[in-house]
Q: What sequence folds into this?
């Protein structure tokens, strides 16, 4: 079964700093990759996703992520964070389009809490 | 569309009590699922359903029951609550073949004393 690792549990940055959150997955085949964000007191929202094509994916609110297949990674980046980016960020994976059943379930990483200081 | 709705928002139970967390969606989605969110562990899948009358276990099903009598509703039942079930519970739904667009409910925060 696939698994997802997020090694940064809590990241604290000042406004305008650059952000990179790590995400690694374990599966050798085709995967679909996601970043979700959960703002305080709110439910999960999709930030961006990668299915195929250009490995550099742009999402909402200035976030982007790069899929590096050789490193099994899908790191999230933002050049300049804002206080409003304070949230918990989850990386998630499903197996590719030819998988079925439970393999197409979203498997989440443990999450990274981002705190941006004003 | 209301999207995915969950009730209640908060609940406190005593050990051994039973209760049902409600989840409903009005998007005619075939697939519905329940997750629990615990600090440092992300979201873990409890049960899921691919359509009315069809349910299956996820990663952490013990202590929970589900049923899917209609497309719209997917209740989660705790038959005998335990402190280990203290968590935030999220319901989600999507079209069966569209794994990219999953809609989450607002969550239910459950405390078991």
A:
């Amino acid at each position: 079964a696939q698994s997802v690792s997020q090694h940064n549990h809590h990241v604290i940055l000042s406004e305008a700093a650059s952000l990179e959150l790590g995400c690694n997955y374990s599966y050798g085949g085709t995967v679909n990759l996601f970043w979700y964000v959960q703002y305080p007191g709110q439910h999960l929202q999709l930030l961006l996703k990668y299915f195929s094509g250009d490995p550099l994916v742009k999402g909402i609110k200035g976030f982007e992520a790069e899929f590096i297949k050789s490193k099994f990674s899908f790191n999230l980046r933002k050049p300049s964070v804002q206080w409003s980016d304070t949230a918990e960020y989850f990386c998630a994976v499903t197996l590719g389009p030819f998988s079925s059943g439970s393999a197409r379930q979203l498997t989440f990483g443990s999450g990274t809490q981002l705190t941006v200081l004003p | 569309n209301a999207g995915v709705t969950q009730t209640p928002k908060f609940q406190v139970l005593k050990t051994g009590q039973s209760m049902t967390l409600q989840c409903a969606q009005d998007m005619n989605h075939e697939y519905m699922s329940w997750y629990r969110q615990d600090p440092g562990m992300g979201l873990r899948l409890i049960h899921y359903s691919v359509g009315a009358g069809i349910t299956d276990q996820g990663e952490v099903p013990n202590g929970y029951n589900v049923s899917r009598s209609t497309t719209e509703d997917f209740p989660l039942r705790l038959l005998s609550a335990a402190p280990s079930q203290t968590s935030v519970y999220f319901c989600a739904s999507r079209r069966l073949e569209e794994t990219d667009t999953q809609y989450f409910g607002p969550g239910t925060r459950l405390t078991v004393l």
